[in-house]
Write a structure and sequence with these properties.
CATH architecture: Roll
Number of strands: 5
Number of domains: 1
CATH class: Alpha Beta
Radius of gyration: 18 Å
CATH topology: CBS-domain
Number of helices: 5
Oligomer: single chain
Helix content: 40-55%
CATH superfamily: CBS-domain
Shape: elongated
Mean pLDDT: 93
Structural class: alpha+beta
Length: 142
């Protein structure tokens, strides 16, 4: 299975925010949208960074409550790893494991076209394994 197939099933809607958004507002935004990370876009919709719950926890751990008054550009991850629609589940799992992150923006022709989470990837991988097991059982029984 590829990232394109995951996005075709789950949808391609991605919420984004501006790098000037305040951290406290971003915390509310993540909570209101029930998401663990948000893509930060700059001029022309280009990916400027990604803000995750982990980024916020690190900032609060380092600066205390003062971290909440900073713009998210001060605490976001600005070096963003992305994938393409042609990446396989195994390739994406490797990227996420090696990078130690749970959200991966998807780009096509330099444009943001979706985002996948580790939950999306694990769910699809489990479906693949279950389907393969059923095919093996059917083969053995037949």
């Amino acid at each position: 299975m590829t990232v394109k197939q995951i996005l075709d099933q789950k949808g391609r809607d991605v919420v984004t925010v501006s790098p000037t958004m305040g951290t406290e507002e971003a915390v509310r935004f993540l909570g209101d949208n029930k998401i663990g990370a948000v893509v930060v876009t700059g001029d022309g919709g280009k990916i400027a960074g990604i803000l995750s719950e982990r980024d916020i926890v690190r900032a609060v751990g380092k600066k205390g409550a003062d971290a909440l008054t900073a713009p998210i550009s001060a605490i976001m991850t600005s070096k963003v790893t992305t994938c393409g629609e042609d990446h396989t589940i195994n390739q994406v799992m490797e990227l996420m494991t090696n990078g130690r992150f749970r959200h991966l923006p998807v780009e096509k022709d330099g444009r943001l076209v979706g985002i996948i989470s580790i939950g999306d990837v694990v769910r699809r991988r489990i479906e693949d394994v279950e389907r393969e097991a059923e095919e093996i059982k059917a083969y053995i029984a037949g």
